[in-house]
Specification:
The complex is a heterodimer of chains A (143) and B (576). Chain A is an alpha+beta fold. In chain A, 22% of the residues lie in helices and 30% in strands. In chain A, strands 1, 2, 3, 4, 5, 6 and 7 form a seven-stranded antiparallel beta sheet that branches. In chain A, strand 5 and strand 6 form a beta hairpin. Chain B has an eight-stranded mixed beta sheet, sandwiched between helices. The termini of chain B are far apart. In chain B, strand 3, helix 13 and strand 4 form a beta-alpha-beta unit. The radius of gyration of chain B is 30 Å and the shape is elongated. Chain B contains 19 helices and nine strands. Classes of the chains: A alpha+beta (143), B alpha/beta (576).
Chain lengths: 143, 576
């Protein structure tokens, strides 16, 4: 728990890469628009993790996608993540035309998600594992 | 023969009069029955109104029977007495919710009563003349006169009150609490009025007594009282210590009053600490010094939590207490205007010093629910308003042990009163939702609270890591079991306790199960709020009422589908 981790900057680069690579594989190509809520460092709420650790999160709306293409986009995202050997761990809403997928990147364990929202919009999200902001634990910590 | 004809003519006139007037109060009764009133004078008014309607009908019937009997006594055939029909059943009186009262409905009530006052007075006079003219008792006609007088008096009182409310309360709809307590205030007659009038004199004893009460309807009374105080009286109360704790006050007012109190307490404790430090001469003095220092630390902790955070709405301080085990109630988003309000009730090992995690969970839920709610606004509240059981001290104190439900019973009453306040202070809305999430021992507290306010506590209950909620079946929680959601991560030690009633995770409990996704195999008691986890997303969807979008576990190792019964068609749909 108190071991060095990757830094916030490294995690942000990886989170961004995971989303941009996924978006680049989609047809029609979406325009990415940052979701303001949650972007950046968030408290690591996982039990047993010391206070002070954070997760790095980014989410982007998939704009310029016709509403009728939502399910098609969902299938493409799933296929792309599987092709990258990421794990698909959850899915929901498909029966009502709302593609929701949860995944975990391999081999580094970032949480991935394609999420349907009210108003027929989709966003792509990636979140890092818990890390120390500068990669090293503080001299004294724990809770 | 002349007597017979005169009696029959009088009966005909009375029959026509009854046909015209027996429904005079029906629409008024219907209007009142169409609302689910909680507290105040609305319900007593409705009961009196309903009694007058019944008396109107029975008086008209008595007059007709008296005249018919007279016809028979004069040798005529027994006349048929027409039945006085008319249904006043409510279309729907939905309990709970945030629905306000349409002022047009109340204007309609006034018009009906006004008209009834006029027409029944005239009808009573005509009927009295006919009955007296036939040598019969005029008592049934006098009853009509009494009803007419009552209707006229009510019209005047209600019109005066409605005008005043419209001058002081903005918005197209009337808040239900204000309508119940102010518009029908003449029928309220409840004890809080005395305490509230004492409160206006800044009587701290009155405030203490009000804060100790957790009865249904009190929050609505307080809300109505506050709104009718006016701009000149309201500011006087804002710097009264503890005033912001009153359930039913608008959230912005609670925040304003509590922040002032927090600042005052900080000044007082800082001075006290300096004095204690200065007079510190004996090691035994350390107890008092430490107590003051601890309270000051708690104030600084609260101040830190209230700092604005990028990406979140400004936090509202709805309640705090730095003494004892401590209290802290904070909302992200304004619960009085939010389309969806979610109250997070924590439990085991929670106390003020360790509440940072609880606050972060409420923020995480606000963020997640907001991401998927579209145009709907969300308020997420951390409610730490009771002495939750502690692990270690609980071993010595049964009332604080996780093995006891004493703390949950006391906390449940406080939580129910808090939710009353949210409902009372919310701007009228026909679509707003209230959701309560109980975590760990907090789910038992939530269950206790739900049973105290059947039908009015929440639209959805979410129970996570629950050791039981104190009832045997979800239906006993006072809402439709299809809106009781249970999530348990595998290996959750508290959920596994299952000792307070039926295990909510068991099928026999009758609740809905929602998957906690990845946490099924990362198993930990507090991992439900992991940022960006399927578990958090699912809670966000439940908060928003997006039940069809819940994520189900999928292939975990490329081959195995965990809990396939939750997603029988998932593989086919995904692979299509």
């Amino acid at each position: 728990m108190n071991q060095p981790t990757i830094t916030q900057a490294q995690a942000d680069a990886r989170v961004t890469q995971l989303i941009r690579d996924t978006a680049a594989a989609l047809t029609p190509p979406p325009r990415l628009e940052l979701v303001p809520h949650g972007t950046g460092a968030n408290d690591c709420l996982h039990d047993g993790e010391p206070e002070g650790k954070v997760v790095i999160n980014r989410a982007y709306w998939l704009r310029d996608i016709p509403k009728s293409q939502s399910m098609n986009i969902g299938r493409q995202v799933k296929s792309y993540w599987e092709a990258q050997e990421h794990r698909i761990v959850s899915a929901g809403g498909w029966q009502v035309g709302h593609p929701n997928i949860g995944g975990v990147s391999q081999p580094d364990g970032y949480l991935l998600a394609l999420v349907w929202t009210e108003g027929d919009n989709l966003y792509l999200e990636a979140t890092s594992p818990c890390l120390w902001p500068d990669g090293t634990p503080p001299a004294r910590n724990g809770r | 023969m002349a007597d017979y004809t005169a009696a029959q003519d009088a009966l005909k006139r009375a029959t026509l009069l009854a046909a015209d007037h027996h429904t005079a109060l029906d629409s008024a009764v219907r209007l009142m029955n169409a609302h689910a009133w909680v507290g105040g004078g609305a319900q007593p008014f409705t009961e009196i109104l309903t009694a007058h309607r019944a008396r109107l009908r029975s008086s008209l019937a008595a007059a007709l029977h008296a005249l018919a009997d007279l016809v028979v006594r004069h040798g005529g055939p027994a006349p048929a007495i027409p039945a006085m029909t008319g249904d006043v059943a409510a279309i729907s009186a939905t309990p709970g919710g945030f629905q306000g009262i349409d002022p047009r409905a109340m204007a309609g009530l006034l018009a009906t009563l006004d008209q009834a006052g006029h027409t029944l007075a005239a009808a009573g006079s005509r009927l009295a003349a006919d009955l007296s003219g036939q040598g019969l008792s005029a008592q049934p006609a006098q009853a009509l006169g009494h009803i007419a007088t009552w209707a006229t008096d009510q019209t005047a009182d209600l019109r005066r009150r409605l005008t005043r409310i419209r001058q002081t309360v903005p918005g197209p709809m009337l808040p239900a609490a204000i309508t119940a307590y102010e518009l029908f205030g003449a029928h309220a007659g409840e004890a809080p009025d005395l305490l509230l009038s004492q409160l206006l004199k800044r009587d701290t004893n009155a405030l203490t007594r009000l804060l100790a009460r957790q009865d249904t309807g009190l929050a609505a009374r307080i809300n109505a009282w506050w709104h009718t105080l006016g701009n000149d009286l309201q500011p006087r109360l804002l710097d009264m210590a503890g005033f912001g704790l009153l359930n039913g006050l608008p959230a912005a007012i609670r925040d304003q009053a509590n922040r002032r109190w927090l600042a005052t307490e900080k000044t007082r404790l800082t001075t006290a600490l300096a004095a204690a430090t200065k007079s510190f001469t004996h090691p035994l003095d350390i107890g008092g010094w430490e107590q003051v220092a601890n309270q000051l630390r708690r104030i600084e902790f609260i101040e830190a939590q209230l700092q604005p955070r990028p990406g979140y709405p400004p936090p509202l301080l709805l309640g705090f207490d730095v003494t004892g085990q401590g209290r802290l109630i904070v909302s992200w988003g304004d619960p009085d205007t939010a389309d969806i309000t979610v109250t997070n009730v924590s439990g085991l090992t929670t106390r003020l010093e360790t509440a940072a995690g609880d606050l972060a969970q409420a923020r995480a839920l606000w963020q997640q629910a907001t991401k998927t709610s579209g145009a709907q606004t969300v308020a997420s509240i951390t409610w730490y308003g009771y002495d939750a059981p502690q692990i270690d001290p609980g071993l010595l104190s049964p009332s604080r042990s996780v093995a006891s439900d004493d703390a949950a019973k006391r906390g449940g009453a406080a939580l129910a009163a808090f939710q009353d306040g949210l409902h009372a202070a919310h701007e009228p809305s026909s679509t707003a939702r209230a959701v309560v999430i109980g975590h760990s021992y907090g789910s038992l507290t939530t269950g206790q609270a739900a049973t105290l306010r059947p039908g009015r506590f929440a639209d959805d209950l979410i129970l996570v890591g629950s050791p039981g909620v104190g009832v045997e079946h979800a239906a006993q929680l006072g809402l439709d079991p299809k809106h009781v959601w249970v999530g348990e991560a595998g290996g959750d030690p508290v959920a596994a306790l299952g000792r307070f009633g039926t295990d909510p995770g068991h099928d026999s409990f009758g609740a809905q199960h929602f998957p906690v996704g990845r946490n099924i195999w990362t198993a930990a008691h507090s991992s439900y709020w992991d940022p960006a986890s399927a578990s958090l997303r699912n809670m966000g969807r439940l908060i928003n009422g997006q039940y069809d979008d819940l994520e189900q576990p999928h292939h975990l190792d490329g081959a195995q589908l965990l809990m396939p019964e939750l997603a029988p068609d998932l593989v086919d749909q995904l692979d299509r």
